[in-house]
Design brief:
The protein has 629 residues and is an alpha+beta fold. It is 24% helix and 26% strand.
Length: 629
């Protein structure tokens, strides 16, 4: 699925005690100004040769001290953006897409984080950690000064919230200022293990943590025995200590700990407000920003959290982020040309002219996202593996990248890209484009030259670029398989709706036959690809059934010898995408996309997790000058 880092990521710089700009320090000064005052005066005058005293009223000017007008508030350093989608969710245990994860990255602290420059794991809520000799117990030492806060969108005030206190009988006895504790992480992780939460990434973290899979796969989710809950291997001996017990010595587990699914969340707020706890005005957060506005499908605004510990502010200077939802990349690009947003995707028809005119404000980065077309394996005719192989091998990825994407990518024959541990060399595993093989497979399935083939549906994301992608597929299947374009009914939906339409629990009769998706890495290990996406016990949308390939996936996950794991993953990729492969989907390309980037905005792309806005910077003077302000 197209999740985290859907586009490119970014980097910046901030002063430690910077506060939200709507709360500047007010300095009162006085100035002297002349005012007219009426007074009674007595004067001595000479009238007709005699000296007399005369009393009368006069108007005089005297200096007076009055408060000076307050200075106009400086505009906060603001990042302006445009997105073609709403935020699907701000719930850390539910989020699974790029947009959601970027906001969660900034609204909540994680257990650890990724260094933007080195991709090494660095402290966040956890200041340090210890790993047992057998690799099964991870002990995290947490800081205790990160407040839970709530922002009032009406008043603009951000305050630390109070946590309710209860006695042994469960009666509330009072409140106390709430800080993030190990118990909040325990609650978040156990909530991720709960099948009633409904998060895709639950199946990603569950295999590693003792007892998590037992709860996630409970026969009766509405009545999970207490002993199963108690068996989840996560505990908080004290507020500053979190212990996670693993099912096996997963060598990659530490690289998973920045993941949003493991985040601490405010139990009392979630239990009080239910699904609405993430809305503006309700949400309780712990990160560098607070949610100021969220008008669904229209606009969202976040502001700097003034209560964040100063040493956690990050290196950036952005105080406010305003993102408007727009219908397509063309609209986003028009806003960028008018200096109204800092970054943009570039519509394919505009790319050549853009590179010629704005080459110095353009970047191209491989973000390790691999895109593919998936099949509902339980829905005819794609319940026949030969049909899936035929449609996969009939797609000319190299031509698509050169002619439609104008060089923005590399063809992929298997799933995991270069740079991921365990990924085979890019050209050594998988069939890729082979029209003769494709035609033969379709004929073997009983559809020679596509004769008798039924009408099928192909669902893509919204946007012109995706339309060109699925139309290219339609044309390839016509040319290489003989399938008339009218047999492939194409449709587009917003990303969040596509995820719902293709969910594993969506009935086959309601699900499309095929759909577009992509996957970018959560951590740099092949298990994050074949294990977290294709393993039969994940919430897989293709509805694979378990077989010997899944046994291989588990064996590779448990293996501790790096060389052996590399060999095993090559065999797994071949079992999925080779000539005898299962083909739950077919990989098409590794994205290396161009993006427009104004010179006043600086960032370092993040390959894992969401955008770290707190580490990104804007030259405000240059930005405002370009905007005519």
């Amino acid at each position: 699925m197209l999740k985290k880092r859907s586009l490119l990521f970014v980097a910046l710089m901030v002063v430690a005690l910077l506060v939200v700009a709507c709360q500047p320090e007010v300095v009162t000064e006085t100035v002297e100004v002349p005012v007219e005052v009426t007074r009674v005066v007595t004067e001595t005058v000479v009238e007709e040769g005699q000296t007399v005293e005369v009393t009368r009223e006069v108007v005089v000017e005297v200096p007076a001290e009055v408060p000076a007008e307050e200075p106009a508030m400086a505009e906060p350093v603001t990042l302006y953006g445009a997105s073609t989608t709403d935020i699907p969710s701000l719930d850390p245990q539910i989020a699974e897409d790029t947009v959601s994860i970027s906001y969660i990255e900034n609204l909540f602290v994680a257990l650890t984080n990724y260094d933007l420059e080195t991709t090494e794991i660095v402290p966040e809520a956890a200041t340090s950690w210890d790993i047992s000799e057998d690799g099964l117990v991870y002990t995290f030492n947490l800081r205790t000064d990160i407040p839970w806060v709530k922002h009032n969108p009406v008043t603009g005030e951000t305050v630390q919230v109070e946590r309710p206190l209860y006695d042994d009988a469960g009666e509330m006895t009072g409140t106390e200022p709430a800080f993030v504790t190990a118990a909040d992480f325990v609650y978040g992780i156990k909530r991720a293990c709960d099948p009633n939460t409904g998060g895709y990434y639950s199946s990603v973290i569950a295999p590693q943590i003792v007892g998590c899979s037992a709860v996630l796969n409970a026969e009766d989710p509405a009545n999970i025995p207490q002993e199963l809950w108690d068996g989840i291997g996560v505990s908080a001996p004290d507020p500053a200590t979190l212990v996670i017990n693993l099912e096996f010595p997963a060598s990659y587990f530490l690289s998973m700990t920045p993941m949003w699914t493991l985040n601490a969340v405010p139990q009392w707020t979630i239990e009080d407000l239910g699904d609405s706890w993430i809305e503006a005005g309700n949400i309780v957060t712990s990160g560098r920003y607070v949610l100021n506005e969220w008008v669904h499908n229209v606009r969202r605004i976040v502001l700097r959290n003034p209560l964040m510990p100063a040493d956690m502010y990050g290196s950036g200077n952005i105080e406010k982020i305003v993102t408007n939802v727009v219908p397509d990349t063309s609209t986003q690009y028009a806003l960028w040309l008018n200096n109204e947003v800092e970054t943009t995707g570039i519509p394919e028809p505009e790319l050549e002219a853009h590179l010629s005119q704005y080459g110095d404000e353009t970047i191209q980065i491989a973000d390790l996202a691999v895109f593919y077309i998936a099949f509902r394996m339980t829905k005819p005719p794609f319940d026949d593996v030969r049909v899936r192989r035929a449609f996969g091998a009939a797609f000319d990825s190299a031509t698509y990248i050169q002619t439609v994407r104008q060089g923005q990518g590399l063809p992929m024959k298997h799933f995991a890209p270069p740079g991921i541990f365990g990924a085979p060399p890019i050209n050594e595993v998988g069939v890729g484009f082979d029209p003769e093989f494709a035609a033969a497979q379709l004929a073997e399935a009983g559809y020679p030259n596509c004769e008798g083939f039924p009408t099928v549906t192909l669902l893509g994301y919204s946007g012109a670029s995706t339309l060109s992608w699925i139309e290219f597929a339609q044309a390839n299947w016509s040319e290489n398989l003989g399938c008339s374009p009218d047999l492939i009914q194409i449709e587009q939906q917003p990303f969040s709706e596509l995820l719902t339409a293709t969910a594993a629990d969506t009935p086959d009769e309601e699900a499309p036959h095929m759909w577009t998706l992509g996957w970018g890495p959560d951590y740099a290990d092949e298990n994050n690809w074949v294990g977290d996406v294709l393993w039969c016990e994940t919430d897989n949308r293709s509805k694979r059934t378990c077989n010997e390939i899944d046994d291989m996936i588990v064996e590779a996950r448990l293996e501790t010898d790096p060389a052996a794991r590399i060999e095993m993953y090559a065999a797994i990729e071949e079992a999925f995408f080779g000539p005898e492969g299962e083909y739950p989907f077919f990989p098409i390309f590794l994205r290396i996309a161009y993006s427009g980037l104004h010179s006043w905005y600086s960032y370092t792309p993040a390959l894992f997790g969401g955008d770290q806005w707190y580490n990104y910077s804007i030259d405000q003077a240059a930005q405002l000058a370009a905007r005519g302000q």
